[in-house]
Write a structure and sequence with these properties.
The protein has about 300 residues and is of the alpha+beta class. It has two domains: about 15-190, no CATH class; about 230-295, no CATH class. The chain has eleven helices and seven strands. The strands form three sheets. Strands 1-5-6 form a three-stranded antiparallel beta sheet. A two-stranded antiparallel sheet has the order 2-7. Strands 3-4 form a two-stranded antiparallel sheet. The longest helix has 21 residues, at about 185-205. It is globular, with a radius of gyration of 21 Å. Residues about 1-10 have low confidence and may be disordered. The chain binds iron/sulfur cluster (2 copies). One iron/sulfur cluster (SF4) binds near residues 46, 50, 53, 55 and 136.
Length: about 300
């Protein structure tokens, strides 16, 4: 895959991370090194009569976000475990060293075809297609400046030689394109997940959060929350999770049926486990018992 020129570095420095780089095939260096903001314009259109129709759905490197998996499992009316087994391959997101699911590229349509490509018809799951596919030919990147509380998003253009959409005469702003692709909803659901990816990327240079390697078990928890709401819901309701964490009754009721609330709880929990952030609180008695245990382990009275 071509280099984008964006960098990531240690936790005390600026961190810059491309999240959806959209690059499908390596043909030189197709990322334009220009930062686009929402109000900036670019020229592009994709429709079934372009000569390159479906080219970008071959050998596509599509990492699935939590929102993508929610939308796709609803569309296909299957459980996440079945979806993962049938349509994805596990992989490691190298920038953050966290496990992710990627779309399979051994579909029926042709060699290297995305598993959802339905021949000349195009994408077989179009209204539930992943964020990476919606963003193309834009990429999304985030930057967190040293000392800043919040990260900022910006966009960049991917100009691959096979994509004729850039020759089409349709001018639009990034904001118009994002609205047309219905990206705001997906980005909102994925926001905290992207935060985790960014933080893990920034900590990589010192070996992990607070210079500690992330355990295999924590990576498995990350994968469960990110890819399988059914298993995570079972974990919340059938383990000691609700005895451990202080969660109000109304939220608990929501978590039984609301997948998006459940995902947000999962991200809060992961931020607490990975970075020790106070995104979720232990119950008072559990916390006191944990402190007493810690003191006793250290031989303190
Ligand atoms: S999900 Fe759809 S748009 Fe995305 S690569 Fe597959 S066929 Fe193409
Ligand atoms: S114009 Fe670009 S995005 Fe559209 S089908 Fe062709 S390669 Fe894919």
């Amino acid at each position: 895959m071509p280099q984008t020129g964006f960098r990531s570095s240690g936790p005390e420095q600026e961190v810059e991370l491309d999240i959806f780089d959209g690059v499908r095939q390596s043909d030189g260096n197709p990322v334009e090194p220009v930062r686009l903001q929402s109000t900036d314009s670019f020229c592009f259109s994709c429709h079934p009569t372009v000569t390159c129709w479906n080219r970008c759905c071959h050998n596509a490197d599509v990492t699935l976000t939590p929102a993508d998996i929610l939308m796709l499992t609803r569309k296909l009316a299957i459980e996440p475990a079945e979806f993962l087994a049938q349509y994805t391959v596990p992989d490691n997101w190298e920038k953050s060293d966290l496990p992710v699911a990627k779309l399979r590229t051994d579909g029926q349509a042709a060699e290297g075809a995305c598993v959802f490509l339905a021949g000349d018809e195009g994408c077989g799951v179009y209204d539930a297609r992943p964020a990476t596919c919606r963003y193309y030919p834009l990429g999304l990147a985030s930057i967190k400046m040293m000392g800043a509380q919040k990260k900022e998003d910006f966009y960049f253009l991917v100009r691959e030689s096979h994509c004729r959409g850039h020759k089409e005469d349709r001018q639009q702003t990034v904001a118009e394109f994002r609205t047309e692709q219905d990206l705001e909803t997906l980005d909102e659901i994925n926001r905290a997940w992207i935060d985790i990816m960014m933080k893990m990327t920034s900590w990589r240079s010192v070996g992990g959060p607070n210079a500690k390697k992330v355990s295999k078990q924590t990576k498995q928890m990350f994968f469960m929350v990110s890819t399988d709401v059914t298993t995570f819901r079972r974990f919340v309701f059938e383990s000691r999770f609700l005895e451990t964490y202080a969660i109000d009754e109304e939220t608990i009721e929501d978590l039984r049926t609301d997948d998006i609330s459940l995902l947000q709880l999962g991200f809060d929990w992961l931020k607490n486990v990975l970075f020790n952030e106070q995104t979720i609180n232990m119950k008072e008695d559990v916390l006191k018992a944990a402190i007493a245990r810690g003191r006793s382990d250290m031989g303190a009275t």
